Amino acid sequence: MNSNYQQCHNLADLYYSSSRIGLLILTSLICICSLSCAPKHISPNTHSLNISDSSEEIEKKIYSPNFMTLRGHAKISYKNKEKLSRLNAFIALEKDEFLYIDAFHFFGTIVYQLKLQKHQVYAFYPRENTLYKGKSTKENFYRLFNIKLTLKNLYFLLSNPLLLLDNNTKKITPVNEEILLEDLTTKIYINKELQITRIILYEDQKESMTIFYKNYAQFSQKAFPKELEIIDHMNASTLTMKFTDITFEETLDKKRFDIAIPGDAIIRNLDE
Predict the structure, then answer these.
(1) Is 55-269 a domain of CATH 2.50.20.10?
(2) Residues 138-176: pLDDT tens digits?
(3) Which helix (H) or strand (E) holds 77?
């Protein structure tokens, strides 16, 4: 009886020790994976912020990825007075060509597929088996997502917001510990690290949209904000994108980003 008890006790000790070792190994692997897969934090910018610099000199120093293509994953949340939605998304963007988004629930079901091109926008909702299509305008984007944006706006906001400024009317102003670059319709705030922190867009001399750039990190050797928050003041809505991984400058196969529409799908024309 005692020997059997001792055997069981020894086995329990062995199991406990093995479990602890397994847990330690698993924890170590998770840590290693987290360190290797996560975007790297960027080193401080070696350039200095100097109000006496010309706007051209300041713009050369500012962090801006200036990419041609972007591909990655993000967590997207949308909020207005009536609803709050949170989705995962695969995103692909090519300059002057298209923005493509696969948005899906956390358990994998596709909610919608969006393809925004220079002249056309398509949004397919599989559950309703409905395709919305129309001209690529702010108004049509608003009809779909209650926020006014175009392909050009989105590309500039992600790649190089300084392109939003009108060279003929832009000026530089110190604001506390930041520098403000602005023209008649756009204000861009830049911090000590020469990172864009926020942008305010104006329409009819009223604030129409504010974009916050948060938590810069290194993706594919380019400094990029991990979080982008777009507040549409006129429509009381907020779109937030939290990027988990990004790859720049890959050759994107355009056929991969065509939306497959079933033959019996309902077609809704956004322009009518």
Answers:
(1) yes
(2) 899 989 888 888 888 889 898 889 888 888 888 888 888
(3) strand 69-79
